[in-house]
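wait is this the right file?? whatever heres the structure
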């Protein structure tokens, strides 16, 4: 059974539409499914995602200096993307090796939970960036640590609940008419997931607009203090705004097509539409480590320590503001 197929034939576990044909098919062992090239691409994507994010998780766990709230959130994002990559690999293996209702539900639930945690972690990072600028004087306080831990608990708690829904019965294994473009999720299930994504995207868009306003206001205040706007201030402000635009644009371009298609798509449409919108969504988990981790100087230094030993382990880590990441 293809979990992601939009127009594949009904699963052998679903009731057939013809009585005699059902008896004839039931007496024959199911033929091994032909390997779908789209599934191979998803598996390759999952492998790249898992490798990239495993390095980030290892670096953050290995480096004692990376224990600030900012890096805790980056670690949460990397963990979620790592699990999503592993889920894509497991989905490919189980889809063509072990054809089981239970395995199908567990795999799709695992993927839903992982990608939900990834998107929610991006929201948490955005909130942290906003707080670091809006409450710059009180950011490094116990209240911030409590806020970060609360966001982490909420992120993974909600993600786990959404991932358990298909396993607990919110699926269409025995009701083909209720299936969405992502089997065995129901139409109402993917609608809920899409609505949650749209809400997160709107919140992130609002927060990044506010961040841009704060950055521009800070640059203007510095210019007034120095009586003129230097080229370096202009370049720094432009770079900060451009970085925020790239972050939000990448996130929207990756996930919006799939979220929209989940709402307007029909399970009888060609499966190529589902794959063509789902594959770019997985690329977001491939790009996240580059945007949020590998560009950071502390993580770059820790990579040298971990893999090359070019620096001593007692290197002091300079804590940076989340808005610099």
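ok assuming it is, sequence goes like this
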């Amino acid at each position: 059974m293809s979990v992601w197929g939009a127009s594949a034939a009904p699963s052998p576990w679903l009731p057939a539409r013809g009585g005699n044909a059902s008896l004839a098919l039931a007496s024959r062992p199911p033929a091994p499914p032909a390997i779908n090239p789209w599934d191979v691409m998803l598996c390759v994507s999952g492998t790249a995602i898992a490798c990239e994010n495993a390095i980030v998780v290892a670096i953050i766990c290995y480096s004692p200096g990376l224990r600030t709230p900012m890096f805790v959130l980056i670690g949460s994002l990397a963990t979620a993307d790592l699990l999503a990559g592993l889920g894509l690999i497991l989905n490919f293996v189980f889809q063509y090796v072990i054809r089981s209702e239970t395995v199908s539900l567990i795999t799709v639930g695992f993927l839903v939970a992982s990608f939900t945690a990834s998107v929610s972690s991006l929201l948490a990072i955005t909130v942290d960036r906003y707080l670091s600028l809006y409450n710059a004087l009180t950011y490094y306080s116990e209240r911030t640590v409590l806020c970060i831990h609360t966001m982490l608990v909420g992120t993974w708690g909600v993600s786990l609940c959404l991932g358990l829904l298909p396993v607990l019965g919110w699926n269409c294994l025995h009701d083909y008419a209720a299936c969405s473009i992502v089997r065995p999720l129901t139409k109402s299930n993917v609608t809920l997931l899409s609505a949650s994504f749209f809400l997160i995207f709107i919140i992130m868009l609002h927060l990044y607009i506010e961040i841009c306003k704060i950055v521009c206001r800070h640059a203007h205040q510095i210019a007034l203090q120095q009586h003129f706007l230097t080229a370096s201030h202009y370049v720094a402000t432009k770079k900060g705004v451009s970085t925020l635009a790239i972050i939000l644009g990448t996130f929207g371009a990756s996930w919006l097509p799939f979220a929209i298609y989940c709402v307007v798509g029909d399970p009888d449409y060609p499966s190529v539409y589902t794959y063509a919108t789902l594959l770019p969504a997985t690329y977001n988990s491939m790009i996240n480590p580059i945007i949020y981790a590998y560009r950071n100087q502390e993580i770059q230094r820790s990579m040298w320590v971990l893999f090359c030993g070019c620096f001593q382990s007692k290197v002091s880590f300079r804590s940076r503001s989340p808005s610099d990441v």
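Residues 187-225 form the longest helix (39 residues). so i think its the right one actually
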